[in-house]
Design a protein that fits this description.
Blueprint lengths: L2 E6 L4 E6 L2 E7 L4 E9 L5 H17 L3 E17 L2 E13 L2 H12 L3 E8 L15
Antiparallel strand pairs: 1-2, 2-3, 4-6, 4-7, 5-6
Amino acid sequence: MLIGVGIVNRDYQYKLTIGSHVVHEEIKTMQIVYETMYILRPDLTDEQVEQAIAKYENLLREHGADNFQIQNRGKRRLAYEINRQRDGIYIQMNYTGPGNVIAIMERSMRLSEEVIRYLTIKQEVKEVQAQATIPAA
């Protein structure tokens, strides 16, 4: 009788096998907090901006992201000219999800003509630890 345990992938996949039979299989993907800031062309209408925001939010949701916080930072002057644009509409998205959603979203942004810049960072989440209080005697 051969017992095997294997962990595959960094997102975590666990398999317990006895012989050639899989006894228990568990797949978990790590949920990481991300922040994506992207800049849209300044000539887009409010409706087009809302459509672009919904497009990227839905794309991320389809691939397992959740806990969205989206902020439209408005039209601002760029520090330097990008693609002959001096202004841009800044959008900030905070969300959690597996790591593979970033490449999918950034590919879509790269191919889009409405996005002139984007940047995604992984945010550090500090765990809050409860401290025990000792009552005064």
